[in-house]
């Protein structure tokens, strides 16, 4: 894999990140994937609809949801946000299948398309320059990036802090920057941060997805962009 990190640093980062996310049973894998995909339809997800999608009792689905952190509800107790994907407007716009959604952080936009099995158009402002960053991300990688040298700020996650509040303690530090140079001031002010290339950030998400979902996570039918191949950007380097 082409990476700016040493192999040791990369392996340590992967190990730390995947340990933050809960291990899922086979039923939990089905519930998680279905929840992401129902939420991507652009409406709050009620337990009955989720239970019907996975063909499990609503009480079992409810117990699973209550046991997870990173699940957000509206006043009617329907899910409106789940591990990075949300209906609530935010800084990272995420368009898929004609629906405009949002993500909690930049990294979410890179690993969620594989979970959805579809292509997403991403828009996010560089916090240093206020320039718009645009990406096309699919199940097999990043098809397009403008600017091409876009980088991702990343903080090594702490499990206890993430369980307490994943948005405040992790997501608020993970942004796209138009270049490494544009991130210099940010990094100076946040010494616990590191900078990842787009490919590194996407590959990190792939590792996280593989650990959480294993063989149940299949690529979708839209794993190539018109006229392009995701492998040219993301898989040919690995």
Distance between the termini: 4 Å
Low-pLDDT stretches are 219-238
The quaternary state of the protein chains shown equals: single chain
The global form is globular
CATH topology category name of the domain at 7-22 and 85-215: Beta-Lactamase
**Major sheet: size, sense and barrel closure?**
8 strands, antiparallel
The computed structural class is alpha+beta
Radius of gyration: 17 Å
Number of strands: 11
Helix content: 25-40%
> Count of helices?
8
Can you describe what's shown?
This protein is of the alpha+beta class and 238 residues long. The protein starts with 6 loop residues before the first helix and ends in a 25-residue tail after the last helix. The protein has a domain of 147 residues: Beta-Lactamase, CATH 3.30.450.410. It has eight helices and eleven strands. Strands 1-2-3-5-4-6-7-8 form an eight-stranded antiparallel β-sheet, covered by helices on one side. A three-stranded antiparallel β-sheet has the order 10-9-11.
Question: Summed up, what is this model?
Answer:
Helices cover 37% and strands 21% of the residues.
Tags for this model:
21% strand; alpha+beta; three-stranded antiparallel β-sheet; 37% helix; 238 residues
What does the secondary structure layout of this molecule look like, with pairings?
Elements: H1 7-20, H2 26-39, H3 47-54, H4 58-67, E1 71-73, E2 79-82, E3 85-86, E4 92-96, E5 99-103, H5 108-116, E6 120-125, E7 132-138, E8 141-146, E9 151-155, H6 159-169, E10 176-177, H7 184-189, E11 193-197, H8 198-213
Antiparallel strand pairs: 1-2, 2-3, 3-5, 4-5, 4-6, 6-7, 7-8, 9-10, 9-11
Helix pairs in contact: 1-8, 2-3, 3-4, 5-8
């Amino acid at each position: 894999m082409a990476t700016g990190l040493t192999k040791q640093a990369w392996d340590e980062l992967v190990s730390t990140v995947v340990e933050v996310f809960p291990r899922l049973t086979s039923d939990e894998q089905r519930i998680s994937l279905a929840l992401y995909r129902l939420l991507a339809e652009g409406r709050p997800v009620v337990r009955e609809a989720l239970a019907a999608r996975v063909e499990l009792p609503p009480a079992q689905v409810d117990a699973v949801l209550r046991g997870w952190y990173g699940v957000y509800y509206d006043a009617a107790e329907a899910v409106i946000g789940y591990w990075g994907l949300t209906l609530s407007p935010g800084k990272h716009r995420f368009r898929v299948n004609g629906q405009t959604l949002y993500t909690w952080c930049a990294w979410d936009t890179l690993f969620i398309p594989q979970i959805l099995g579809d292509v997403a158009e991403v828009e996010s402002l560089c916090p240093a320059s206020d320039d718009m960053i645009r990406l096309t991300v699919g199940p097999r990688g990043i098809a397009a990036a403008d600017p091409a040298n876009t980088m991702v700020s990343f903080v090594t996650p702490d499990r206890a802090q993430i369980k307490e509040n994943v948005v405040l303690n992790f997501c608020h530090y993970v942004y796209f920057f138009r270049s490494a140079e544009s991130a210099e001031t940010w990094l100076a002010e946040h010494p616990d941060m590191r900078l990842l290339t787009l490919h590194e950030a996407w590959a990190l998400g792939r590792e996280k997805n593989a650990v959480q979902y294993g063989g149940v996570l299949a690529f979708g039918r839209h794993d190539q962009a018109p006229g392009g191949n995701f492998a040219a950007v993301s898989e040919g380097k690995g």
